[in-house]
């Protein structure tokens, strides 16, 4: 029983880590290349979920809805980049924080206007609703495995694009040394738009995949964006590899902390104290981790090489 | 100094704002609008917090994205003692200041090792820790919050449960804090933190260990925010972890920038405009379409965007430009 | 004369490139010691090691009797090393007087004063004013630093360095970007302190170097090939060769 629970928790941690990675990937690239702090990146996670939900009801197919919702989220990201982000890249971080804070309000209220204040639950097709049995005691929902598989595939694809293609080379160059890319005579504005919109679409995909489990709701993006920032700060701003490893660390620690910290504490303190302290500490765990990592390595675990 | 040089748009507005704020209890009584005293009290308390944040943000160049935590700590420094039936304000206020100063000292010592975005995010992380800490402290209400059924007791004859008296305590606090900040910014110490904002490299070439000065500024700012929090705890009678979430910290930053981070009085304008917008946008929207007021974040967000995009230096900067013309 | 700054066998390389190779150098108290060398000779690397911006791989730096090889710059500054920057580095939002007052304040060490207005501290301002006067900027004392010319920025840099009342001025290309008239004015200003202040001068402008220096060290490819009086350097064959290979500036 004990090991069955552990395996379930490990898979949950992996799933959270992968979703976090999908949000963090765009965030870290936008941050790394354009030095742009985008608090509103979580809004694409929310918008993706709502667009997808609407399409599910229209088309009656979850897979088709996701396939259509990804490019639609990309368009939303592109428009946000052209209208707002583009004109403030050159400003300081304070302006970025404020402007994107304003964008969050606009996106959240926009969703409220279009879809109402209630959350939207998204039904899954039957074939994704089963359980996969690994042994007589270990059963895992097949949808969770699907999320992990799709997430890993996107991560792999992203990794190949960033490491093997010409665009990827420019992105990496931009993350470590912005002036160099400009010196190469690349139209950096288009590169920015592309990265921004693609990042939005990938974050949107994460929102689409989680919402059948949780439901799409206003503010879902604001919960994840802060954790995604923790991920990229831990991983090192601008690094895809850092975002991936950071996301898995954060996903695992958060999930396992919530389920096992009280047992750990019971080894060193009374049961009652452990039960009081564990929920508090487990919610704080990732922030403690981030503060500890920054205290030791102010640039994060994998900072891009040249700055 | 020439007297006419003092009559600038900025000074006139400042004087007008302070006089109106100073007369609020009288005005609300005369016009029989006690509700507006409520808003005014909130404005004055948040102005203390925003002005304190501005010491490090505007003058020291440290963008703390976690200052709501100090407000929260200050409020719980009133709420928790009252929960245990300790009613003395001589306990609450020093406790609020001391605990926030200590929290600022510990978190600042770590955060100030980082720069730029890392600093923004690490200050946010520390405030999230406090947020989750109070969220899980079920003894003190957890996410349901904590009811403060009494006010801090100070002297006989200074009853904080009387709205006008309490308002004047807050107003005098604001004036005192603004004066204190004005002196600090123009003192030797203030020059050092302004210098460190403008040119850190030169400061260390001159022999200044800038980290130490920044940390002291951070502690002062945190302690004053904690004091604002203690006032807030007395004001609202209900506190919850919600008041220290990162969104609240973002709002504080926006108030500072909206008012103008380059000036002592700026944050007061910022808080004033922010709360008035928050109060009246929904009402105006309801006039156009019944029930439209719930969507007030939409125009509010657009205003925020427009301010960032087009109003450099905030309201205070705008008034300064009027003077130069 | 006693040795104020002593550099022993300093080494620094980047990847495979040795930017500083076994540099040894003495700066005597009271002298103006210039370091010259063709582009890429490693002057910048040497300076940044002296300032603590980069740490040497090996070797020793002693200043005023203390080993400072790995000390951070604030500590070096407090021992009496003042630096002017190659790229103007002043506080743009402050007046010239405030810029210098901040330097005076760094030296007298009372910066944890929170209440008294700094601009009403007569002693502080008077002292700052004397340094501004010495570099010829007294009439611009109340002008914002962003509003003065490049040449005046350079003069302000000198005043700020002087205001910390250092044992040694480390002047990193004080004439950089100046016209000949401005350079001449700067030479005159620096001449006033010759014999009074120890200076380590890194400069491209040979007229200025020969007008000011008591001794010159020539740095080529990270090595000091000669240290001598200006006349001797002028006649030194190795130096001529090094410079003729580049430009006879």
TrEMBL record, chain A:
GO terms for molecular function: transmembrane transporter activity. The chain crosses the membrane at residues 12-32, 39-59, 65-85, 97-117, 143-162, 191-213, 225-253, 274-296. It is a multi-pass membrane protein. Its main location: membrane. This is Branched-chain amino acid ABC transporter permease. GO terms for cellular component: plasma membrane. It comes from the Bacteria. Keywords: Amino-acid transport, Cell membrane, Membrane, Transmembrane, Transmembrane helix, Transport. GO terms for biological process: amino acid transport.
From TrEMBL, chain B:
Coiled coil: none annotated. Its main location: membrane. It is a multi-pass membrane protein. The keyword Signal does not apply. The chain crosses the membrane at residues 12-31, 37-57, 64-84, 90-112, 119-137, 165-185, 211-232, 252-277, 298-319. Pfam families: BPD_transp_2. The keyword Ribosomal protein does not apply. Keywords: Cell membrane, Membrane, Transmembrane, Transmembrane helix. PANTHER family: ABC TRANSPORTER ATP-BINDING PROTEIN, HIGH-AFFINITY BRANCHED-CHAIN AMINO ACID TRANSPORT SYSTEM PERMEASE. This is Branched-chain amino acid ABC transporter permease. It comes from Pacificispira spongiicola. The lineage of its organism: Bacteria, Pseudomonadati, Pseudomonadota, Alphaproteobacteria, Rhodospirillales.
UniProtKB/TrEMBL annotation, chain C:
Pfam families: ABC_tran, BCA_ABC_TP_C. The keyword Protein biosynthesis does not apply. One of its GO terms (molecular function) is ATP binding. One of its GO terms (cellular component) is plasma membrane. SUPFAM superfamilies: P-loop containing nucleoside triphosphate hydrolases. The lineage of its organism: Bacteria, Pseudomonadati, Pseudomonadota, Alphaproteobacteria, Rhodospirillales. PANTHER family: ABC TRANSPORTER ATP-BINDING PROTEIN, CONSERVED COMPONENT OF ABC TRANSPORTER FOR NATURAL AMINO ACIDS-RELATED. The keyword Nucleotide-binding applies. Keywords: ATP-binding, Nucleotide-binding, Transport. This is ABC transporter ATP-binding protein. InterPro entries: AAA+_ATPase (IPR003593), ABC_AA/LPS_Transport (IPR051120), ABC_transporter-like_ATP-bd (IPR003439), BCA_ABC_TP_C (IPR032823), P-loop_NTPase (IPR027417). Residues 5-246 form the ABC transporter domain. It comes from Pacificispira spongiicola. Gene3D superfamilies: P-loop containing nucleotide triphosphate hydrolases.
């Amino acid at each position: 029983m004990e090991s069955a629970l552990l395996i379930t928790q490990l898979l949950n941690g992996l799933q959270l880590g992968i979703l976090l990675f999908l949000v963090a990937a765009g965030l870290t690239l936008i941050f790394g290349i354009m030095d742009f702090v985008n608090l509103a990146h979580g809004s694409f996670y929310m918008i993706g979920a709502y667009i997808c939900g609407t399409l599910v009801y229209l088309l009656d197919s979850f897979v088709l809805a996701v396939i259509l919702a990804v490019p639609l989220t990309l368009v939303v990201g592109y428009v946000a980049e052209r209208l707002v982000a583009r004109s403030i890249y050159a400003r300081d971080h304070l302006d970025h924080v404020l402007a994107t804070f304003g964008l969050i309000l606009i996106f959240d209220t926009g969703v409220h206007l279009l879809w109402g204040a209630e959350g939207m639950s998204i039904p899954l097709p039957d074939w994704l609703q089963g359980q996969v049995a690994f042994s007589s005691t270990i059963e895992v929902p097949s949808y969770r495995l699907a999320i992990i598989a799709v997430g890993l595939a996107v991560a792999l694809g992203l990794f190949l694009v960033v490491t093997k293609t010409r665009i990827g080379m420019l992105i990496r160059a931009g993350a470590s040394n912005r002036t160099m890319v400009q010196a190469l005579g690349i139209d950096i504005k288009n590169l920015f738009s592309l990265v921004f919109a693609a990042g939005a679409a990938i974050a949107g995909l994460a929102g689409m995949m989680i919402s059948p489990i949780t439901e799409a709701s206003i503010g879902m993006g604001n919960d994840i964006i802060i954790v995604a920032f923790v991920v990229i700060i831990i991983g090192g701003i601008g690094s895809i590899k850092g975002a991936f490893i950071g996301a898995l660390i954060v996903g695992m620690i958060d999930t396992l902390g919530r389920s096992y910290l009280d047992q750990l504490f019971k080894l060193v303190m009374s049961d009652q104290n452990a039960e009081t302290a564990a929920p508090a500490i487990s919610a704080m765990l990732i922030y403690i981790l981030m503060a500890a990592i920054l205290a030791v390595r102010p640039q994060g675990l994998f900072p891009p090489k040249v700055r | 100094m020439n007297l006419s040089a003092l009559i600038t748009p900025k000074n006139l507005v400042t004087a007008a704002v302070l006089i109106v704020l100073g007369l609020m209890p009288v005005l609300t009584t005369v016009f029989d609008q006690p509700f507006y005293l409520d808003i005014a009290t909130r404005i004055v308390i948040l102005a203390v917090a925003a002005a304190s944040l501005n010491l490090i943000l505007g003058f020291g160049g440290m963008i703390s994205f976690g200052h709501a935590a100090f407000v929260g700590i200050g409020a719980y420094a009133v709420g928790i003692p009252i929960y245990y039936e300790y009613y003395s304000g001589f306990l609450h206020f020093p406790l609020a200041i001391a605990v926030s100063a200590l929290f600022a000292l510990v978190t600042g010592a770590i955060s100030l090792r980082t720069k730029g975005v890392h600093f923004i995010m690490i200050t946010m992380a520390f405030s999230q820790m406090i947020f989750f800490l109070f969220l899980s402290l079920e003894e003190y209400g957890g996410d349901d919050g904590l009811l403060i059924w009494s006010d801090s007791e100070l002297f006989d004859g200074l009853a904080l449960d009387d709205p006008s008296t309490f308002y004047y305590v807050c107003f005098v606090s604001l004036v005192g804090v603004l004066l204190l900040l004005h002196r600090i910014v123009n003192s030797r110490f203030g020059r050092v933190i302004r210098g460190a904002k403008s040119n850190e490299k030169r400061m260390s070439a001159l022999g200044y260990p800038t980290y130490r000065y920044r940390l002291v500024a951070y502690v002062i700012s945190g302690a004053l925010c904690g004091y604002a929090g203690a006032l807030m705890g007395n004001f609202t009678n209900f506190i919850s972890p919600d008041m220290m979430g990162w969104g609240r910290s973002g709002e504080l930053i926006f108030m500072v920038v909206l008012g103008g981070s380059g000036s002592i009085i700026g944050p007061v304008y910022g808080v004033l405009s922010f709360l008035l917008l928050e109060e009246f946008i929904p009402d105006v929207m309801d006039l156009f379409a019944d029930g439209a007021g719930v969507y007030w974040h939409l125009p509010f967000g657009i205003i925020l965007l427009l301010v960032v995009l087009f109003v450099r230096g905030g309201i205070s900067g705008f008034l300064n430009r009027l003077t130069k013309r | 004369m006693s040795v104020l700054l002593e550099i022993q066998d300093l080494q620094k390389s980047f990847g495979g490139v040795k930017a500083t190779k076994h540099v040894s150098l003495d700066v005597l108290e009271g002298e103006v010691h210039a370091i010259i060398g063709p582009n890429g000779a490693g002057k910048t690397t040497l300076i940044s090691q002296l300032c603590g911006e980069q740490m040497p791989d090996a070797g020793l730096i002693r200043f005023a009797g203390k080993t400072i090889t790995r000390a951070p710059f604030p500590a070096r500054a407090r021992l009496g090393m003042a630096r002017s920057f190659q790229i103007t580095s002043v506080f743009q939002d402050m007046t010239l007087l405030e810029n210098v007052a901040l330097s005076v304040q760094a030296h007298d060490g009372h910066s944890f004063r929170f209440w008294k207005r700094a601009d009403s501290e007569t002693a502080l301002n008077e002292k700052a004013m004397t340094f501004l006067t010495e570099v010829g900027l007294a009439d611009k004392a109340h002008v914002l630093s962003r509003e003065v010319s490049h040449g005046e920025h350079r003069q302000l840099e000198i005043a700020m360095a002087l205001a910390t009342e250092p044992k040694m001025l480390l002047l990193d290309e004080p004439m950089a970007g100046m016209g000949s008239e401005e350079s001449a004015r700067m030479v005159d200003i620096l001449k006033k302190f010759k014999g009074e202040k120890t200076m380590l001068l890194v400069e491209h402008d040979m007229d200025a170097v020969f007008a000011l220096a008591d001794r010159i060290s020539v740095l080529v490819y990270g090595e000091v090939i000669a240290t001598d009086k200006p006349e001797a350097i002028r006649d030194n064959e190795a130096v001529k060769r090094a410079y003729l290979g580049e430009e006879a500036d």
